[in-house]
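HUMAN:
Could you generate one sequence with tokenized structure?
ASSISTANT:
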Amino acid sequence: MQGRRQCDGCGQLFWPRPQVPDQRYCGRAVCQRERRRRWQQAKRRNDSDYRENDTRGQRAWREAHRDYWQGYRQSHPQYTERNRVQQRRRNARRGVGVIANEDVSTRDSAIASGTYRLTLADECVIANGDAWIVEIAVLSKT
């Protein structure tokens, strides 16, 4: 029989199961969740097929549950306020002046024909989603 080992999750000593000779985590539920979390993290990092399938699954869930986060924030005001405070701290630490969530243009914005040049955003700007800083040069007929 093998000796006791130290759990990679909680650090406690445990007896590994004889059926699992390389067991590194004890049987506690929290340690098994940590084991699965680390496995999934490594799988996403190293397996492009797994990563793409995982991304598709998350996207499909978000599409099927569009109102989830809005409802969650409404029913958990303490969470919402805590998140706002933490985001302000992160922004202050980074020295961020402008924050853009998704596309900041409005539907009423008419995009005229012209030359469009995409430029890299400064590091002082936080952009979530597909936000771009775009410089537009409009050509006129003269």
The chain is about 45% helix and 15% strand. The chain has a mean pLDDT of 83.
